[in-house]
Amino acid sequence: MSKPTDKVLLVPGETGWEIWTAHADAAFTLHATSLSSRASELSGIPSGDILMFFPVKAITAIPMKVNSEDDSLFPELAVMHAERLGMRPDPMAGQLTDTFVIAREGETTALFSVHLRPPTEGDLPLRGPKEFDVSARAFPVQGDCLAVWKEFGRWVFSLSHQGKTVYCQATSTSAAAPDETLVREIRLAIIQLALQDIDLTPSRVVLWTHAETLSPGALAGAFAAQVEVSPRPAPVPPTPRSKLLPADVRAARRTAQRRRNSILAVAAIVLAYLGVLGWFGYDLWKIHTDTQLLLQKAQAAAPDATAYSLHLAKWDELKYAVDLNQSPVDILYRISRCIPPNSSLRLKTADIKATEITLVGEAQQPAAVNQFSLALTKSNDLVGLVWQTPAPQSSTRGWEFTFNAAPPKN
User: What is the pLDDT averaged over residues 246-264?
Assistant: First the structure.
């Protein structure tokens, strides 16, 4: 009877990659740790099938609700929803999107949509994994839970509903303990979920850390549930398995180049042999001509630098979807903080785009409008905007105003 194949998990840790192994159906144990965040620098990976978990910072999570019960339609609906948000996956980079069912209610299905950034040089190990997934799905929790931990020195968090991952995000803070920035980004994520009709109030808050002593920091008291501090559990291969499968373009090109070199070498040997047999100068000249032609074809098949630059430019278009500072909800929150307290001023419409902001509102007294205008121009949270705040106009209901803002021109 043959020996069962060992299983290997590559998991992002607090400072670098972690290698976890298991034999047959046994639980996974930590095999080795690395201080590097580049998977290509991992060495000593044991034999067996590799399941690689991409770090949370490598993906964009988009929860969504669809009016369908047909699972076969979910991938297409997820791609269409992502395109409306400005995300256009590269079809030549492999299977970079996947969807997971969160809950079903009648004809409505809540989905957790994952969009993977195309891996770059160093993001994949030298030995190709058999499967891929997302690290947030490697640590299942019970109930409606908020889980917080560190990956490669940065705090990340995930929100779960009845044990199923609803959302995950890498934050902008790498503080030693959870701080106000982390709490603020978690609350913004919960608000954004509520705007998509996905209400999630965590009944549990867990903080995973390998440190012997770590204070919950700003997490303490930030949510109704008490913070549970414990070591991060051993990873578990999630069910159902992910369909993520990025294409290692560089490895494919290296393989193709070696294949072309082999063909050229064989062709040169055959042509040289024919030249020796023929002892004719014409044959030698023909061999040289054919070899040069093959070399030109090999050069023509090299990567197109222009196409690669275009790919990077398209990825830059996504900055308005993944940059927290460009979030309409966050911008509206910063604007709302400029409204004078205890005033009659209110916003009727707020049109927030990537390149322009238009605010239409009213107040009973012009002084409230002037105070609001002054607060907008002096707000440290809105320093990247140039405001146009004309004087308010009187109306039957008081004073109306229309303010505009745009990034400064270069």
Answer: 63
